[in-house]
Specification:
2 copies of one chain form a homodimer. Chain A has a domain of 140 residues. Helices cover 55% and strands 11% of the residues of chain A.
């Protein structure tokens, strides 16, 4: 087992040098915090990761989850971890003091979450889900619902879920058929099935609170007729005792990876006795759920970056310890073998991972900061931050997952045949990370969202804001020798990108919607390359500043500049092929009369 | 379980229309064959795949291999399959009649092997290894060795292996330390360890014949001091009885995929009683072994293409059956969901797979034909075919494996969350195919071989021959409307490629060997894109010819043209980023004084 799974130096560099976490402390909401207290939290997270998460990573994968006699057993460490996050106030750490939270900046919460996920990616989903589900009730539920459910979830006692997907409604949520029938007491009877529900059931949870989408009888078809319900596994009697609520676990899904993170198939209302409680107003369920989905999308990006981080350090450790072969320049067979860390191709594979991982975490923290700024800004600013967050959300979900998969596979490659064996963690990371481009909206869905909605909304206002932010960084880079040349490259790519966008918008304007969106996936890939390039220029500038100031470890800052150099030498050029295709008007993938796929 | 794992129409199109298998039948060696007999063999292979290979794919993965009390148990179907290949003469089918073979063209043998591997990639390695090991004895061993070992291996009774890798000598074979000590009777006593030995031991094999590299005491250091030995698990007494030969299986490797294909750790000579028999001359072992390694490299490419083929059809079948969402142009929620086969992004993912799979198989058959032509040509032609085969070997190993991994991952993506679940075969294919860029020389090793050796040998003669072959195809394309425009694109990319090669050769000439080879991996990627583009033009031309002749299924030929269109719209542009990087003189990955990888 590799010992290092993340770099604390990197997290602190990103929090303080790149994203200026300390600027948040000037706001009332965050005034209790300072660098010292945050450092302590980060160190505590790392300590917990070292002692209670990483050591169980492999064991939990081997144990997996078991469904027997209607009951679900998950690895025993999970309940312990969930309780810990509850007891230490981590689950609701970002909530306001008056809700019992710590008003912790999301930047810090995500940085901590990254550490936990890098140590053990299957263990942390339970608390993240509980937190997200609870927050949904906080945002849109009643005071009674808050009192009844939220506290237990925040305490790490009751599991929460997001119950959206159905057998015939996965990517297309508007097609859900789970039904809510209004009762005389204002409650609803729920009938239907949900699949792929993470954390949906396990013995150790006293209760599971499903935040579930369903259709109230007679509601309009499509997305406009979906409502949000609290559907507990066990309902709470007047006296506080728990009674079965006719939510049956029909089975669990057996997965290639994240095997300790249970995925369930639920059936509601087999005995016509499943009670659901409406959250907020009727037919606004999908809108509400987007709060949790958007948060979850950032979490998925974070998870992708975290698994890739653990894989990077495992492969780096192997490369440091393994000797094999000689440099091309010295083929003398008498000479002892060199460390594989000296081989250019191994170095390329390591720089690739480092560039992906650190670029991705930086983007996650960029988004986290936007959430924090939304929390503390006035209306006008808030809207801008909101738009920026919205346009970045599909990218922060997709880049760390798509490129994270490649990054982990590259990490595995560094180990040669050992990478394919269970004696090293790479094969598990390779299996674990593969889910990230699938859940919380596949890459295809994220790409449609980015191009079809986010780029277009408010006449492209979000896109303009994003370009403005990137330009601000490029301008700043003019003052920094090492970052400047890369800023020029990125500026040119951004121009190409705008040409692409103009061409595509032209199709949209002409009503050629299918053509407009046909290559949304490639558009996403291009956007990711640019946005991560932006994050690398930010890191380059911060490193140059730090070098000038003489404050901190110069070698570390130089490693940042070198990795930025790598990114612009090896990653940015990939934009060229994408731009070529995206400017090409030839239609290939839109279904015509003939079927060519045979 | 998906039912279709390969396309017979495609195999026949490639054999007859693209690679003109029938032209081989004019040669004496192959004169007994005709299209009818070959079709029958292909159909029989498919029938065996349907009935005896595919049905056990998942089961064999679940069973895996077990090491207990020094004994190795593999899934029971394996021995049956191995016997079948022996009894039907498949293992030595390409051997000459006087050796008991069938003088089957390698093209046909590989086409059949592709069918078997697509049906069950873990089941076929055993017989491929036995055949390859036997052929090594045929080529370089004595008549006595031939009589003693080869027949049993060809009959599917004795397993054969290639025993190269050691704990400290994987990619760097010249560092092996297994020792051979000459005895008075001319035999050798072997001591040492070998790891990652596929098919290295299992209970059902009466014997295992290791073709093993070792160093004779006092031999020169490095590659020039390696000899080849036959080291049987059980040695054959004068009376024909089998006695233990002090080859101990110390354990097996537990792998992420290909779990039915056992990988062993062997120890020779613990009791100083392991006898080895020298094959051919002393110190020429590595040279001999390259025969088996080169054959195995093509087999790995074939396996990558085969797994990707099975994944393609599994994802296509899913896409055909799954309805979800609506086209962007029709967001009416009342409208019933459409088949996901109609979504542009799903179609892109399917075309991507089809382009990779069919391009890869075509290249495998291109190489197979070269082997056949070598068998029937005079000296002058033989040398050219040999050089072409040598320069294509690292590419045919690498493209189908590297791109096959991406192709399978894309197939998995088509299934959404189900792709991650064991109920569908995609997750197994994703695990299985990951080994292909590792064994028989990693992609890094193949890339060094391609750029450092193959491009340079005989003053670039192999490269010139390859460019000549590609140019021949591009010229022919001038007569074909649909292929012509792509031929022009490929011509331009080939020019870029030559510029890149000139720049790199310049570095080599100046003795800047490390700089010359630093980006060999990207050079390989670029080479692969070009060579597969060439294969697609060949297929395009063949399809246009067939359409003109009116012979055959027009829809199928149109699907070929459409897939060629896809390749040139989406895959060829990837060359642009690679060319940009390869023309860039900035050094990033060559180790300098500082260590930036932290």
């Amino acid at each position: 087992m590799a010992e290092k799974y993340m770099s604390m130096e990197n997290i602190k560099f990103l929090l303080y040098n790149v994203h200026n976490l300390e600027s948040l402390f000037t706001h009332d909401r965050f005034k209790e915090y300072n660098r010292e207290s945050i450092d302590m939290m980060m160190d505590a997270a790392k300590d917990y990761g070292d002692k209670e998460l990483l050591p169980y990573l492999e064991e939990m994968d081997r144990q997996g989850c078991v469904y027997e006699n209607g009951e679900v057993t998950i690895p025993p460490q999970i309940a312990k971890v969930f309780s810990y996050f509850g007891e230490t106030g981590w689950i609701n750490a970002t909530e306001s003091y008056d809700h019992g939270g710590m008003q912790l900046p999301h930047m810090v919460h995500h940085a901590g979450g990254f550490i936990y996920a890098a140590a053990n990616n299957s263990a942390i989903g339970y608390s993240t889900l509980a937190g997200g589900a609870a927050n949904l009730i906080v945002s849109f539920g009643s005071e009674e619902q808050f009192q009844k459910y939220v506290k237990k979830m925040w305490e790490g006692k009751w599991q929460g879920t997001m119950a959206l997907t159905e057998p015939d409604a996965g990517s297309s949520l508007s097609d859900i058929t789970t039904t809510a029938k209004r009762q005389e007491d204002g409650k609803f009877k729920i009938t239907g099935q949900k699949i792929f529900i993470s954390g949906g059931d396990y013995k150790e949870a006293d209760n599971v609170i499903h935040l579930m989408l369903a259709r109230i009888e007679g509601a309009p078809k499509g997305a406009r007729g979906i409502s949000l319900f609290i559907v507990p596994k066990r309902r709470i009697d007047e006296d506080g005792s728990l009674q079965a609520n006719d939510v049956t676990t029909a089975g669990i899904f057996h997965k290639m990876g994240q095997r300790a993170y249970v995925t369930t198939h639920l059936i509601m209302g087999e005995k016509d006795d499943c009670i659901g409680h409406l959250v907020g107003s009727e037919n606004l369920g999908l809108k509400y759920m987007f709060q949790m989905m958007n948060a979850a999308r950032i979490e998925v990006g974070l998870t992708g970056a975290a698994i890739a981080s653990a894989a990077y350090y495992a492969s780096l450790e192997y490369a440091q310890e393994r000797s094999q072969g000689r440099l091309p320049s010295s083929k003398d067979p008498i000479e002892p073998p060199t460390s594989i860390l000296n081989h250019a191709d191994v170095r390329r594979m390591l720089f690739f991972q480092k560039a992906i991982v650190e670029g991705s975490i930086s983007l996650v923290l960029e988004c986290s900061k936007l959430i924090d700024l939304i929390d503390v800004s006035d209306e006008k600013e808030k809207e801008d931050y909101q738009l920026l967050l919205e346009i970045l959300t599909p990218i922060v979900k997709t880049y760390p997952s798509e490129m994270g998969i490649q990054s982990v596979s590259t990490g595995l490659q560094c180990l040669g045949g050992y990478g394919f064996c269970v004696d090293f963690p790479l094969e598990q990371f390779h299996r674990d990370i593969r889910i990230t481009t699938l859940y919380e909206g596949t890459t295809g869905i994220q790409s449609l969202d980015l191009l079809g909605r986010k780029m277009m909304m408010q006449d492209g206002k979000a896109a303009k804001l994003l370009f403005g932010e990137i330009s601000k960084t490029l301008n700043e880079a003019k003052e920094f020798e090492k970052s400047k040349r890369h800023a020029i490259s990125l500026f040119n790519t951004l121009n190409d990108f705008q040409q692409v966008l103009n061409r595509l918008i032209g199709l949209a304007v002409k009503g050629q919607t299918n053509e407009f969106l046909a290559d949304a996936n490639l558009f996403m890939e291009l956007s990711g390359i640019i946005v991560i390039g932006w994050q690398w220029i930010k890191q380059g500038i911060a490193a140059e500043k730090a070098l000038k100031s003489g404050d901190g470890d110069a070698k570390y800052f130089e490693s940042k500049i070198k990795t930025m150099d790598y990114y612009f030498a090896y990653e940015l050029p990939k934009s060229k092929g994408l731009v070529t295709r995206l400017m090409d008007t030839e239609i290939i993938t839109i279904k015509g009369d003939n079927e060519y796929l045979v």
